[in-house]
Amino acid sequence: MKRVVITGAGTINPLGHDAASTFEAMKEGRSGIGALDIRDVDRLQIQIGGQVSGYDENAYFNRQQIALYDRFTQFTLLSARQAIEQAGLKFTGKLADRSGVVLGTSGGGLNTQDENYRVVYEEGKNRVHPFIVPKLMNNAAASHVSMEWNLRGPSFTVATACASSNHAMGQAFNMVRSGMAKVMVTGGSESMLCFGGIKAWEGLRVMSKDGCRPFSATRNGMVQGEGAGIFVFEEYEHAKARGADILCEVAGFAMSSDAADIVMPSKQGAARAIHGALKDGKIAKSKVGYINAHGTGTAANDKTECAAVADVFGAHADQLMISSTKSMHGHLIGGTGAVELFACIMALRKSVIAPTINYEEADPECALDVVPNEARDAEVDVVLSNAFAFGGLNAVLALRKV
Amino acid sequence: MSVQDKIIEIIAEQALLEPSDISLDDTLESLGVDSLALVESIFAIEEAFDISVPFNANDPTASDFDITSVKSIIRAVEKLVADQKT
Asked: Which domain holds residue A317?
């Protein structure tokens, strides 16, 4: 078994257009959630979200590229560029053949689909742009990353709703750990903030009209965000030999299925994934200092997640910190675990724990240290990142200081 | 069809029962209508009466829309129809 480390991290999300600005916002407890600026927003009941602001695709991509890159692909490519440049890797020869890209997304090119349906249904046109299919497909982002960086090994896209990124990073981790790959580019991306996307979520009636308040008794639902987080997972000896700056180690991973309900979370399923990640990484419970929660801000998730953490950790549950950064960037669905990994890296590298902002009132069913409203300075050696998807598919990663 | 009959029809469909099996004093729980079926029932009610029902699945008891029994749902819909049609 090889050891696996992270040597590059890139992102564009509602809090910032790179890792440094994202760390800064998380440290300050700044919110990236605001009024949605999208077409037909007046016909939506939910009019807030975590949009990537100040973003002009023309500043980064030419006309031909934009014809092929949906917004979720653009976010992926920009993040991958940051991550791979930070890692300082060139993919040629054998290394290219033994390096790949596994990404998570739930909606893929949903903006492209939405716009295209408008053209044929609303505007009644009978002809569409020739590249709709290669632009909207869920694997478009993974394919474009592999093309831009000559990653010629195992590459594909994982779709497990809100756990997509964590499942993707888990695959990348195991590929490097097993020796199947030397380097894997991994993470996830999502861009669902369009009329059809929000309208569909509205129907479930789990979205908040006024804000994301995880673990607070006053919480009333989730708020959606968009963006991407991309990482370079590299075999430890390979990274060490070339003198790479190692951000942290990926220490363990586990997944589980509730096999119970299509939307309601299960304490047992979540607990099995958390416990599994510890076991996989041979990590003692008492070593875990911080958990980046799934923490969606819905009534059901937050209490179930807290109960699962309490079950797994017993008395140590009261010693560790657990926060939901969704309170700041919103729920990035298939990209959420990737962006939330930045909070984990910040905890390990900078000894700063990102807060759960908008915390107003204690909920006895969420009686853990949720790092309310203000970031905290704390030394931690091991952190977990939880993701529990609709469909009952759970994926938990464990990271460790190197 | 009256508001009452239509709502009973909608709830019966979700509960996999005949409308005649449903009484006004039944609760959603006693009829086996779970949270997903409730959200679907509210959607069907909104479509049938062209109204907007204030309901957040995070806190079903938070709004004025009273879902304690079949009777309370009928009263609530009648009020929404009256309020929103004027």
From this structure: 251-400
Give the catalytic positions of A in this structure.
162, 294, 331
CB contact under 8 A, A204 and B42: no
B3 to chain A, closest Cα gap in Å: 23
pLDDT at residue B85 greater than cutoff 90: no
Do residues A168 and A103 make contact, with C-beta atoms less than 8 angstroms apart?
yes
Domain extents for chain B?
Answer: 3-84
How much is the average pLDDT of A55-71?
96
What CATH number has the domain spanning B3-84?
1.10.1200.10
Which residues, other chains included, contact A97 with Cβ-Cβ below 8 Å and sequence gap of 6+? A152, A153
Here the tokens at position A161 are: 């709703």
Task: Name every residue whose Cβ is closer than 8 Å to that of residue A315 and which is 6 or more positions away in sequence.
Answer: none
Q: Is the CB of A221 less than 8 angstroms away from the CB of B55?
A: no
**Contact, A294 vs A388, CB < 8 A?**
yes
Min Cα separation B22/chain A (Å): 26
Q: Which residues of B touch A (CB under 8 A)?
A: 35-36, 39, 42-43, 55-59, 62
- What ipTM was estimated for this complex? 0.75
Of A205, A208, A220, the CB nearest to B39: A205
Amino acid at site A99: S
Q: Nearest residue on chain B to A209, judged by CA atoms?
A: B56
| A67-89 pLDDT, tens digit each | 999 999 999 999 999 999 999 99
Pairs across A and B, CB distance < 8 A: 31
User: Do residue A234 and residue A108 come from a single domain?
Assistant: yes
Backbone angles phi, psi at A287, to 5 degrees: -80, -20
Residue A318 lies in a domain: yes
Closest Cβ–Cβ partner in B57, B59, B62 for A204? B57
Q: Are A326 and A214 in contact (CB under 8 A)?
A: yes
Q: Hey, what are A180's tokens?
A: 């199947």
CATH of the domain at A14: 3.40.47.10
Helix (H) or strand (E) holding B79: helix B70-84
Residues A182 and A104 in one domain: yes
Record: contact A220-B62, CB cut-off 8 A = yes
